[in-house]
Amino acid sequence: MKKPAAKLLRWLLSATLLTLVLAGCQATTRRTTFTKDDGEEQTTMIFYTKGNADVVDKQVTKLDIDLVKTMGTKNASTLDDGWRIMQQNAKAHAKLRGVKATVSRQQNIVHEVITVDTAKVNFAKLAKLDDQVLAGKTDHIGLANVTQTLKADGYHEVK
Q1: Sign of the torsion formed by the C-alpha atoms of 44, 150, 132 and 122
Q2: What are phi and psi of 59, to 5 degrees?
């Protein structure tokens, strides 16, 4: 009787260990990063997914804008107007549930960070704020689709 009980115990332990390993693999957060630098602005987009899932859980967009290059002027008043627009944009994003937005300025460089928690955000409101047209109802971000779109737009994946 001891042999079958020992076998059963080993099998149960093995099954439990395998379950824990598989659960751990699925819970691992994967980070996928894309960058683009066109001389006027440098953008970094980071997407977080669980395991091998395609659904993005969190998106972080970091944007560094050279106001002089973007606006084509060194006129301080015009640059200040651009800075105010960036501040208003960040405030509007920060008002959305599931979105955190910060903006700072160091001389002519504006640094903006927008973080989107895809489980909490209202995609329709976010799209409207960003002047994006949604094709149908969108309730998630798919990493495969984002990857294809960003690469077509000149972004490079950081490995």
Answers
A1: negative
A2: -125, 130
Cβ–Cβ < 8 Å for 56, 49: yes
In this structure, which amino acid lies at residue 41?
E
Sheet with 56-66, edge to edge strand ranges:
99-106, 109-117, 56-66, 41-50, 29-37, 156-158
Count CB neighbours of 49 within 10 A.
Answer: 20
Going by the DSSP 8-state scheme, the letter that residue 142 receives in this structure is: B
pLDDT digits (tens, 9 = 90+) for 89-101: 899 899 999 999 9
Residue 17 has pLDDT above 50, yes or no: no
- Regarding pTM above 0.85, the answer is no
Q: Give burial (CB, 10 Å; 0-12/13-18/19+) of 93.
A: buried
- The answer to whether residues 61 and 113 touch, using CB atoms and an 8 Å cutoff, is yes
As a whole number of angstroms, the distance between CA 159 and CA 156 comes to 9
